Amino acid sequence: MISKYLKFFFLVLLIFFLASACKDKAEKSSLPKLGTAAINFNFQDLKGQIWSLDKVRGKVLLLRFWADWCPYCRYEMPIIDKYYRKLNKEGFLVLAVNVKQSAEVALAFTAQLDITFPVPLDPEGKMAKRYGVYAIPTNFLIDRQGVIREILIGEVFKEEKVLRDLLKNYFQM
């Protein structure tokens, strides 16, 4: 009789683990991938403006997830801002999403570097999680139709040439 209950217990346990594994796989498969539509977002930036994927459709978007403790962000953000200033009127938009920090911290950092692109806030890291961000900085280059064309993780814009070469595909440079 004990073996009957033991078999039943192990069967239930096996079903539980299989269901858990399928759930994890489903969550991972919903993360953004190259060549797929970007996940919709809804952020408020430091100036109070609301940003969504629908609002930026028709622009080339660099969606960047960052934090002020990131050493690469300190020298990459001015490089990105240089191209934002140069190409914004032609349809290049940067949304530099600050992850899990206060508006005060994000504002102090961007003011110190004289950053002009919008800085939306993700104070709880919910959008970073939806985008599968596991390292700071993480960048998504999204085309005018809302399709993810590049996913760049870590120190990628140390050399200005990397960003310039990416943008050459969308702008006359």
Structural features, described:
The chain is of the alpha/beta class and 173 residues long. It has six helices and seven strands. Helix 3 links the parallel strand 3 and strand 4 (92-99). The longest helix is centred in the N-terminal third of the chain and has 28 residues, at 2-29. The termini are far apart.
Question: Could you list some keywords that capture this structure?
Answer:
Glutaredoxin, single chain, 2 domains, alpha/beta, 173 residues, 6 helices
Brief characterization of the structure:
With about 170 residues, this protein is α/β, with parallel strands linked by helices. It has six helices and seven strands, in the order αββαβαβαβαββα. The strands form two sheets. Strands 5-4-3-6-7 form a five-stranded mixed beta sheet.
Quaternary structure annotation: single chain
- Beta-strand content bin: 15-25%
CATH class of the largest domain: Alpha Beta
Spatial order of the strands forming the largest sheet: 5-4-3-6-7
**Describe the biggest sheet?**
5 strands, mixed
Which structural class should the secondary elements be placed in? alpha/beta
Distance between the termini: 78 Å
Mean pLDDT: 88
